[in-house]
Amino acid sequence: MKTNRRHFMKAGMAMSTALLADSALAQDTTLIPSRGPGEMIDSSVTYADRSPFVKDAKMRGSANGLSGGGFTPLQHSRGMVTPSGLHFEVHHSGVPEIDPSEHKLLIHGLVDDEKIFTMEDLLRFPSVSHFHFLECAGNGMGEWMGPRGKTVQQTHGLTSCSEWTGVPLKVLLNELGVRGDPKWLLAEGDDGARMTRSIPIWKAMDDAFLAYAQNGEFLRPEQGFPLRLIVPGFEGNMNVKWIRRLEVGDKPWWTHHENTEYADPRPKDEIRAFSFYMEARSVITSPSGGMKLNGPGFYEISGLGWSGAGTVSKVEISTDDGKTWQGASLQGPVLPKCHTRFTHPWRWDGKETTILSRCTDDTGYTQPTYDEMYKLQGPIGMMHNNAIQKWHVAQDGEITNVR
């Protein structure tokens, strides 16, 4: 044990020495003079702002008629949790303004006791809090036929991770009692589009829940305030926001979105109608597209891995365009259906290269290449794109998105 500790300390000292040897990391040792008292917090402040020096972490919005949303700036993320104000958002008919005192949830269909719940009712039920990622099924769809996004925010920014708090769906269903042979649950939102999705009853009775809080505060309007469905690991569109109705039935409803853009093409002109899981995926967030390395030397490669089917078991890094691979370190906690931060030490020699990552989850599934995905989904299979992302590093340090 002592030998291992000494070895660890020596390795840490060696790494520190290597870091200090890089001129970009250690040049001037002159200390800044001590400052006087800082500004007192205004007693009228109700929600604290970030430092005025933090200006880079911003949402990137997009809109097409009433549909729109915002992309998370993954290149500026730290750890695994996304701040609520930077969590990606997609809506299909604008963001409704809902008074929680007037909002109601109807649960009906194949239940013994149909009932309408108020928010006050729901807040009295036993609650749970879990860390889970959400990912839009269209995350990266613009990259399908070739590299387009300049930054990781543009290529992968429709995924985020939060702590969600709410009521387990099975608690409510058990409270009302299900009858007959229920197989599906219809979830309907209270937005202008009346977003509706069919949810398998086994998922509803497993880990799905109705969330009213995110990262320690009530949901924000664009995240479904006052109530949304969280279906861990399933495509983002199934996590219905502003939820107003749940109907228990014996078959899927085949709603508009289940028949159109959220269905996946398969070989021999077949279509996969329900693509529940967002499969294992990873991306290097730093260094990444739009950044520039400040000369040869030590850099930490960092990124995120996730899997809707389970837990990230490993992430591998290649710094030579996929010729060789090395295991990255996973930062804890490593949780199921949650973003996992990975890191890898890298000393860039100043030569042109390409860096990439690939993720494997605990089911044994490994993130595919674009060629592998293209064989499966063809030219129109833009949704559920979890292919390996490549970042090209030029001799001058410029990093760009490449295929």
Word description of this protein:
The chain has 403 residues and is an alpha+beta fold. The chain folds into two domains: 84-272, Sulfite Oxidase, Chain A, domain 2 (Alpha-Beta Complex); 281-402, Sandwich (Immunoglobulin-like). Helices cover 13% and strands 32% of the residues. The protein has seven helices and 24 strands. The strands form six sheets. The protein has a five-stranded mixed β-sheet with strand order 5-4-13-8-9. The longest helix has 20 residues, at 2-21. It is globular and about 70 Å long. Residues 1-15 have low confidence and may be disordered.
Summary tags:
403 residues, alpha+beta, Sulfite Oxidase, Chain A, domain 2, Immunoglobulin-like, 2 domains, 5-stranded mixed sheet, 5-stranded antiparallel sheet, 7 helices, globular, disordered N terminus
Summarize the topology.
Blueprint: H1 2-21, E1 60-64, E2 67-71, E3 89-91, E4 104-109, E5 115-118, H2 119-122, E6 128-135, H3 152-156, E7 159-168, H4 169-176, E8 184-189, E9 196-200, H5 201-204, E10 209-214, E11 217-218, E12 228-230, E13 243-249, H6 256-259, E14 264-266, E15 270-272, E16 281-286, E17 297-306, E18 312-318, E19 326-327, E20 329-330, E21 340-348, E22 353-361, H7 370-377, E23 390-393, E24 399-402
Parallel strand pairs: 4-13
Antiparallel strand pairs: 1-2, 2-3, 4-5, 6-7, 7-10, 8-9, 8-13, 10-11, 10-12, 14-15, 16-17, 17-21, 18-19, 18-22, 20-21, 22-23, 23-24
